[in-house]
Amino acid sequence: MALALPSRAYDLQMLGRPVDRARDQGWVYGLPPGITSAQWPLDPVTGFPLMHGFTLLLPEDYRVHGEDIVALSFFATAPDHNDGGAPDDPEVREAVMARTPHPRLSRMTDILDYGYAALLLTRAEYDGPFATPPAPLALATAERPRWLDVGGACAFCEAAPPFARKMLGGSPRADLAETRAIALAPRADDPNAGKGPQDEHVRSNPPTGYQPYYYYAGGKPGRDNFRLHDWSKDHAPNHLGGTMRPCQAVPEMSPFYVEFEEYFGGYNFGGGNAQLDFNQMKFDWACG
């Protein structure tokens, strides 16, 4: 039976403390749960493990893959491997793709051909122990990413102080397992909950009734006439479903998506933000 469309969107907050797995909604940085080292996705560009960005426990109305799939883990190109465009080494790519994947692994690429991945997790996997990153391929020649030595949180803090310390609630430990907890709260008012984001001027699918978060006073486009709808003013930048605020064009996605900022995992999005549609397994980011 198809899952009903969600009637709520949720704001996600990265707290300034490590995760308490008994009460939090997941975690940012750190390590993914419940998988073996062999199931950890490698980067097809470099042959190193992709960096774990976050693991999110989905509320029941966002469990689009069935009630037994309760969470997802997102993996990204390490920021120190993301600079200007992905080189292509067919030997590395073929070796990575020849590995036996996790049964619910989805791989994605961005406009620069860098690699990303998402794992859909069962309850047993989500409750399982933190995974150990695998060794890189013997073919790997890129410089070792910093997160593999100090953890994603510490690596991000080293790269972007003092902004990172503010977002992380202080200086994180140099530890692969260092996390920041995720808190979830329903948005009080979001007319786009349950509606797939789309730009009405360039959409390729039938209209979903999605509304932009802004309008132009008097119906006249222009900087001086730009206004925010009152219902959008208290929306958090990291969120599950509902109204999207991409840094550039609106990517057309299903209602089952998460939007997040660079600090929500420590990425290089050129100062912008990203969106992951975990129903259709589409990924997009744009610089600020």
In short:
The protein is of the alpha+beta class and 288 residues long. It has helices at 90-97, 123-126, 147-150, 152-159, 163-168; strands spanning 10-14, 26-29, 51-57, 69-76, 105-109, 115-122, 179-186, 214-216, 226-228, 239-240, 257-261, 273-277, 282-286.
Would you give an account of this structure?
- The chain has five helices and 13 strands.
- The strands form two sheets. An eleven-stranded antiparallel beta sheet has the order 5-6-4-3-2-7-1-10-11-12-13.
- Strand 5 and strand 6 form a beta hairpin.
- It starts with 9 loop residues before the first strand and ends with a strand.
Features:
single chain; 288 residues; 5 helices; 11-stranded antiparallel β-sheet; alpha+beta
Structural topology:
Layout: E1 10-14, E2 26-29, E3 51-57, E4 69-76, H1 90-97, E5 105-109, E6 115-122, H2 123-126, H3 147-150, H4 152-159, H5 163-168, E7 179-186, E8 214-216, E9 226-228, E10 239-240, E11 257-261, E12 273-277, E13 282-286
Antiparallel strand pairs: 1-7, 1-10, 2-3, 2-7, 3-4, 4-6, 5-6, 8-9, 10-11, 11-12, 12-13
